[in-house]
Amino acid sequence: MADNLSKQQFQNFPVPRLDDRSFQDLMEEMRSLIPIYCPEWTNHNPSDPGITLLELFAFLTEVMLYRLNRVPVRNLFSLLDVLGVQPAPPVPARTPIAFSPNPAAHGQVLKRGTQVASRRTGSTEPLVFETEKDLVLTTARLKRVIASSGLDTRDVTDLVGTPEKTSFSPFAGTKAIERFLYLCDGRFMTLREVGMRVHIRFSGPSAYRDLYARWAWEYFNGEGWVPARLAVGHGGGEVILDTMPDLSETEIDGVVGPWLRAAPFPSEQEGSQIHFDEIGVEVESVEEGVLPDAVFLNPGGESIYTNLDLSRVFYPLGEYPKWESACYIMAAELFRAAGTKVELDFVAPDQDAYPRPDPTPDLTLRIEYPIAGNRWALIRAVTPNPFIQSGANRFNLEDDTRALRRGGTISFVVPEDLVEREIQGIHGPWIRIRVVSGEYRAPQAVLEAVEASNRFDLPDPKVGPAFEALQIRSRAPVAPVQHCVSYSDFTLTRLWDANRPRGTSVQLFPPRDDYTCALYLGFSAPFPPGTHAIFFKIKDDGEAYSEDWEARIAMQRVRWEVAGPDGFVPLPKCEDGTLHLKHDGYVSFQAPSEPAMVELFEEKGYWIRARLSDGEYDVAPEIEDIRLNAVDALHVQTQTENRVLPSDGQAFQEIRLNRAPVLGNVRIWVKEKEVPRTPEDRQALVDDLGENALQEDADGIWCRWKQVDHFFRAGPDSRCFRLDPHHGIVSFGDGIRGRIPPPGSRVIRIESYWIGGGERGNVGPHTLTILKEGNSLIGSVDNPFRSDGGTEAEGLEEAARRGTRLMFSVDRAYRAEDFEVLARQASRRVARVACLEPRPVERRITRRGEEAADVGDEDRVRIIVVPTQAPNEPSLKDRLIPSQELIRRVECFLEDRRTLNVKLSVRGPRYVPFSVVCTVYLRGRMATGVEEDVSERLYAYLHPLVGGEDGKGWPLGHAVRRVALFQVVSGCPQVLSVLDMKMYDRQGNPLEGSLQLRDDQLPSLTSVKVEAAELR
Fold first, then answer.
1. Partners of 180 in the beta sheet?
2. CB 771: neighbour CB atoms within 10 A?
3. I want to staple 100 with a disulfide (CB 3.0 to 4.6 A). Which of 88, 368, 633, 780 is the partner?
4. d(C-alpha 156, C-alpha 488), whole Å
5. From CA 789, how far away is CA 92, in angstroms rounded?
6. Rounded CA gap, 190 and 295, in Å?
7. What 3-state class would DSSP assign to 281?
8. pTM exceeding the 0.70 threshold for the entire prediction
9. Cis peptide before 661 (omega within 30 of 0)
10. Alpha-carbon distance 826 to 891, whole Å?
């Protein structure tokens, strides 16, 4: 490499100073060593012969350092060349290119090397990118994306392909799929009446009794679902809903009726753990009750019905009741439900204006209801005397109106055989009160007043009972709800109906075996035959995935499957380039030979899913976008030479390419006369050089040699060459390290290579929109994401610095500092790390307040890892414990770099819990926020990352002293002084002076209590 450096590059490169000490520096250094090595020498004047000798040696050393600093730059780069360091060539930018195929392009192949470019702007040449692989085009469209966490299913279709920077977790999306509990019962229609309420009672485990009232309850009003109003007093497994005047019927799961629904809150969406035994419904009227729908008077059994006006004083049996006078009352929603307790509340008017009637002793009223056959059945007969009632009381009738003689309530239970009847054109459930014997007479006081007036020409006084209001209250008995349906995972599940056996427990949202922790992709059409790839844009989580051992240490296992007639089966020949959805990449697969359209999530399509089968994520992945018909493109242009050159058969032959610098691999073919004779030799050659590496000719065989970085591992028969990308020089081996091309006039053929690259290729999204060569298969082209990775060629100075860092970089762990440096390199999520020596057996003791030491790590080097704080949960109270994935990552990274005699134990710190109780004097009388302020200061002082005296985290094994906590609490603005402070261990035992910790332990403050003392 050094031979290729130009003279101008040498002159521009700065002269390195390997040692910058001057003559004076050397003299001062030697004078300072005299008292150490020769204390008897006390005369340090310039006239002393010893000082003269020191000046001579200093002069000679300065001349030597000057000549050393003048070592040519060529020697430095020769050393770097030995180390395998050379200036890096330009790096091309890379970006996925998304093609929009025409309908006729389904199944066609877009060849590798297809060029896309940016638009020309002024005199600036357009950027040209080339696709890296062949692309099988498909017109299938991604029409549904579902993210399921196993317990929670979410629709994230709207987040795919949006221009906004949105992301979602493949195993827990952002927009939750609706989950509802639907209830239907005919008694719900009573909620249309003013003053009605419905009690919904859940029976089951007491742990869920306060859960149901927190749900969002809704009802259907004919146009949509609107919130229902909950009445006060709910809880204990009971939900009370108020009047819904616009409640309408709708159809759910084939049942038409008045439906209510409840949506669990997001924290309760899983529902698979919530179960209950039964749901009961009870209907009641509240406050003053409701007005009847209709009230008619039938005087004397005639076919004349008078509609009574209840807005003023009315006579239910007429002003002059007689035999067969009857009052008909109808309340459609209250009288329909059998078993409902109904209360007819008759409100009496002012007695001075409307005196109470004086019934005869034989007055009897029959309270009746209609039954089949156009007949009326008896509920019970009542008389003015409460002790003289006739007939059995099957319907629990109670009358405190004394046969309507006074205001009061008539209550009864609605019979089961009540049928609806039409009265005066109004059809519904009716109740009537009929006079069957006796009569009402005018009160004695009224008769005496008439006689005293000596005016017998006055009309007879009204003798019928009068009332100023009639209101109905009801309370239906608790009965199981008629229909109960749950909606989860796009599926309606009937939990029970009238035929459900009682006493069996049901789950709110029964789990489904089909839906697991997975990402579901639904496509509109099947994939054509061939190999396809789906690009996943993963949100960067700050972790680097550049090393080969990532695949070995991954704890996650994402299985890619395709839906078939009998369920999901493995996706054929699937290769996951995203490392289980951890970084950007393609998931390639072979199109299923027999695609099947299935219906999932209420959508028919061709489904593929990514199922998390093993492990867990330290940080859950976030998907920003999913693209079909996408392939990576590089900021390069293919340079085709197709030159055939001679070979002289000498060692270290060199060939200069037409263009430089060169990017990537150069395709070079060498013609050999000896053809591999056996199939085994031929297959070994193909395994070494790759597919299509042999092309037979009439007088030999063309063999494509491979490019290597160096010849150190090459043997005499290795078909390889080395490339100097900066100058475009190809060099071959010497027959010992690398095979020599055979001599001949047309032996070496240079086919093609890439040129281009650089920072200019780093462009924003939607820049590459031009297809350089027209193609009828493609409608449009675009780069949906920013291209990155393009860098300029490395200069000599940068290469020298990189080589220096390489010589002094830590790649093997010998010291404790090496383990700590390498552990931080293993993951960006390592905030602190400490390497501790193996613990001897005799040191494995337990003090009061401490946790027992681990058994089994006595002979191991302990690597204690403290992870970074989660950005969405920056609480100072949380214990920072590394996840299993982080521990595995660090352990595997160190295992490859430790010495053979070292055994490792990688784990998190052990936390020792304790509590603090302090008594303080306050500066003022107000103690608001004092305990919160003291707690926050103590938690911050003891935090593993921001605590300690220097604010860099509490040191491992550092004891927590009471006097230090005194100082922290004293710094609070509202604290005048600290009177006392006590520390307690996890068992509540007081600690004397301090909390002692082992070398791998950290303190964990569990609680802080502040008591304010009064100044005397």
1. 487
2. 18
3. 780
4. 16
5. 7
6. 19
7. strand
8. no
9. yes
10. 9
Looking at residue 13, its pLDDT comes to: 44
Tokens of 38: 């020769």
Q: What is the mean pLDDT of the chain?
A: 82
Rounded Cα distance between 267 and 778, Å, is: 47
Distance CA 718, CA 710 (A): 12
Pairwise CA distance, residues 382 & 397, whole Å: 9
Coil/strand/helix, residue 98: strand
Q: Which comes out higher in pLDDT, residue 798 or 954?
A: 954
Contacts of 298 by beta carbon, 8 Å cutoff, 6+ apart: 304, 305, 306, 324, 325, 326, 327, 328
Joined together, the tokens standing for residue 893 give 């990274």
By DSSP bridging, strand 720-724 and strand 700-708 are: parallel
Stretch among 152-166, 737-751, 758-772 having the lowest mean pLDDT: 152-166
Judge residue 932's burial from the number of C-beta atoms within 10 Å of its C-beta, 0-12 exposed, 13-18 middle, 19 or more buried: exposed
Closest CA to 963 of 994, 997, 917: 994
97: pLDDT strictly greater than 90: yes
969 SS3 class: helix
Q: Half-sphere exposure of 447 toward its Cβ, with a 13 Å CA cutoff?
A: 8
> Regarding predicted confidence, which is higher, 544 or 743?
743
SS3 187: helix
Q: Which amino acid is at 628?
A: L
Q: What percent of the chain has pLDDT over 90?
A: 30
Cα 504 from chain centroid (whole Å): 35
Tens of pLDDT, residues 199-214: 888 887 765 666 777 7
Do 704 and 784 form a contact (C-beta atoms < 8 A)? no
pLDDT classification of 844: cutoffs 50, 70, 90: very low
Extended beta strands in 334-407, E state = 341-347, 358-359, 364-371, 375-382, 398-399
3-state SS, residue 23: helix
The pLDDT assigned to 524 comes to 94
10: DSSP letter: H
Between 436 and 5, name the one with better pLDDT.
Answer: 436
- Separation of alpha carbons 986 and 1006, rounded Å: 9
What does the DSSP 8-state code read for residue 121? Answer: B
- For residues 945 and 831, is the Cβ–Cβ distance under 8 A? yes
Cβ–Cβ < 8 Å for 290, 334: yes
Q: What angle do CA 630, 632, 636 make, to 5 degrees?
A: 140
Cβ–Cβ under 8 Å, residues 626 and 521: yes
Query: Rounded to whole angstroms, how far apart are CA atoms 596 and 603?
Result: 13
432: helix, coil or strand? strand
Give tens-digit pLDDT for 168-184. 888 875 555 567 889 99
Indicate left, alpha or beta for 404 from its phi (over 0: left) and psi (-120 to 50: alpha).
left
Burial class (CB in 10 A: 0-12, 13-18, 19+), 247: buried
SS (H, E, C) 760-810: HHCCCCCCEEEECCCCCCEEEEECCCCCECCECCCCHHHHHHHHHHHHHCC
> What gap in Å lies between CA 253 and CA 496, rounded to an integer?
12
Residue 679 phi/psi, 5-degree rounding, is -60, -30
pLDDT in tens, 275-306: 777 888 887 777 667 889 899 999 876 778 89
Q: In residues, how long is the chain? A: 1016
Q: Which two tokens stand for residue 40?
A: 């008897």
Residue among 151, 145, 148, 154 at smallest CA distance from 171: 148
Given this model, what pLDDT does residue 513 score?
53
Q: Look-up: residue for tokens 């084939």?
A: 254
Distance between CA 858 and CA 862 in Å, rounded?
A: 9
Query: What band does 852 get if pLDDT is binned at 50, 70 and 90?
Result: very low
Are 413 and 398 in contact by the 8 Å Cβ rule? The answer is no
